[in-house]
Each structure stands twice: as structure tokens, then as C-alpha cells.
Amino acid sequence: MKPLRKHKGVVVPLDRTNVDTDQIIPKQFLKRIERTGYGNFLFYNWRFQGDGSAERNFVLNLDSYTQGTILLARRNFGCGSSREHAAWALLDYGFRVVIAPSFADIFHSNASKNGLLTVTLSDSEVDRLFAACAANGYQLTVDLENLEVTDDSGMRTPFWIDPFRQRCLLEGLDDIDLTLAHEADITAYEHNRRRY
């Protein structure tokens, strides 16, 4: 997992509540066995029309947001099924951070275990960020070490994250890395178990 300490990027405003995992990555694209290649299908039903042409008014199809790496959304982002593919699709597209007032629990867990930072801010703070996004190319810096979101105008907004999740994201530790940190103990246990 790629470590994340401080990330600066263009903010993509997805002004929708209850964005579910089937909208993030529709079910017909879940046949892949790799964690890559899902970015092409991110928000597919919103990004494309029935004939496959781009939906002109969808935010990811607007020139000013094609290089965005911070997604801004409304309440209950990532609700629906527990598919880990949703986090994979967001990361594969290029997002490193999602900011919203609330996240579905399973999505929140899947995101952090794959290196995608979810930042929870109040509704009023998110409203303020949506208003700032009216200026195309609006950028934020998300500092995971100091737990704050800033912009070039001097705005500073603190956020909280579970310290364990913070450490894993800062150091790029996924579940396998955490297990391998105990490799010597595991090896000793397996060695002693054979004697019994």
C-alpha cells in the first residue's frame, strides 16, 4: 500500500448524498480478479450515456476536473454493498482522498485498508468547500500527519482519524504488512507446533 502523508490536489465536487457502491463501481464490472483497471468504470452509469458516449454534464467529464485527486461528496458516501472494488475504483482513477460529512462503515474500512483516506468534516465545512469549488481548479492540501485540511487562501480545518488507521496510512501498512510484522512470532509458533 502506498503511504500517504500530505496530499495536495484539485477537488472534484460530487454534490450528491447517499452515493452507493453500485454507483461507484457497477456490478457488471466486478468480474476482474485484479485490483487494477476499475478506474475506467468509476461512476460509469453517471459518466456515460446508454450508447457509451460521455455524459457532458457529469463532473468527471468536465475539463477542469479531469486531473482531480480529492473527491468531495455529501452524507453517507459509500453506502450499499460491501464491495471493496469501490475503493479500488476510486484509487485506480487517481483519487487519494474523499471528503464528506459521513461515510458508510464498511466503505470507510475498505478505503483505509487500501490507502484511500476518508476525511469526515461537518456539513457546514463541506458546504464551504463546495462553494469554494465554484472556482475551477480549486485545490486542497490534506495533511494526515497534522490532521488538517488547508487551502491557498489560509483556510485551516482540523479533522480526526482513528490513530491506528492514521498510522497504517502514514506507513502504507495493509493487513498483510501488519501480519508480517509478527513473522518471527508466527514462525516460532509454527516451529513449536510441529513438535507437539
Q: What can you tell me about this protein's structure?
A:
- The chain is α/β, with parallel strands linked by helices.
- Helices cover 33% and strands 15% of the residues.
- It has helices at 21-24, 44-47, 85-93, 105-113, 123-132, 163-171, 175-180, 183-195, and strands spanning 6-13, 70-72, 97-100, 117-120, 139-143, 148-150, 156-158.
- The chain is globular.
- The model has no long low-confidence stretch (mean pLDDT 93).
TL;DR?
The chain has eight helices and seven strands. With about 200 residues, the protein is of the alpha/beta class.
Order of helices and strands: EHHEHEHEHEEEHHH
User: What about the largest sheet?
Assistant: 7 strands, mixed
CA radius of gyration: 19 Å
Strand order of the largest sheet: 4-3-2-1-5-6-7
Give the N-to-C terminal Cα separation: 37 Å
Q: What is the percent of helical residues?
A: 25-40%
Number of helices: 8
Counting DSSP E segments of at least 2 residues, the number of strands comes to: 7
Shape call? globular
Instruction: Note the beta-strand portion.
Output: 15-25%
Structural class: alpha/beta
Q: Mean pLDDT across all residues, rounded?
A: 93
Write the layout of secondary structure elements.
Layout: E1 6-13, H1 21-24, H2 44-47, E2 70-72, H3 85-93, E3 97-100, H4 105-113, E4 117-120, H5 123-132, E5 139-143, E6 148-150, E7 156-158, H6 163-171, H7 175-180, H8 183-195
Parallel strand pairs: 1-2, 2-3, 3-4
Antiparallel strand pairs: 1-5, 5-6, 6-7
